[in-house]
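=== How it folds ===
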Amino acid sequence: MSAPVSAHLFYSVNGVARDPHLFQFDAFGEAEGELMTTALEGVTDLVIGRKLWQEWKDYWATADDPFGAFINPVRKHVISSTLQGPLEWNSTVAVGDPVDYVRRLAATAAGRVSVAGGVQTVRSLFVGGAIDTLTLTMHPAVTPDGGRLFDESVPLTRLQLVDSVITPAGNAVLTYSLRP
């Protein structure tokens, strides 16, 4: 049996998922932290795009907080067509087709698999059917143009809402199943 594969993105009301630091931090409170901690329980492998991996490794490798305590030891699988291994920060380059790689990873993972981003990585795995659940934390903000998860390349896809929480900060945390 394969490990579940989940993805979680921060999202603005108008659908922007890229650069969530522009709208997320002033609407991220204790409830959001607790939900993130719960979502990361049991995750042994993290799939991450190259750009986000490069940004995160420079900051999180020395961070001393709850997310740093999670992200530093977890195995990271970097989706990249340009990086070559070996990589630092308990990371490896995902070799081959990303969708096939994630499916093989899920079949052998000791725990849950989480896809952290970026937007293109999550979109390609979503379209390829490699993600079981998608959580969107919708922040009460409208942002200028930016990267959207769902664009014209995403076919009509029915999702099943399996959980929803409205936080005191006004965020809607929506979790969808991509499996019937």
Notes: The CA atoms of residues 12 and 101 lie 30 Å apart. The helical segments are 30-40, 50-60, 66-71, 98-108, 119-127.
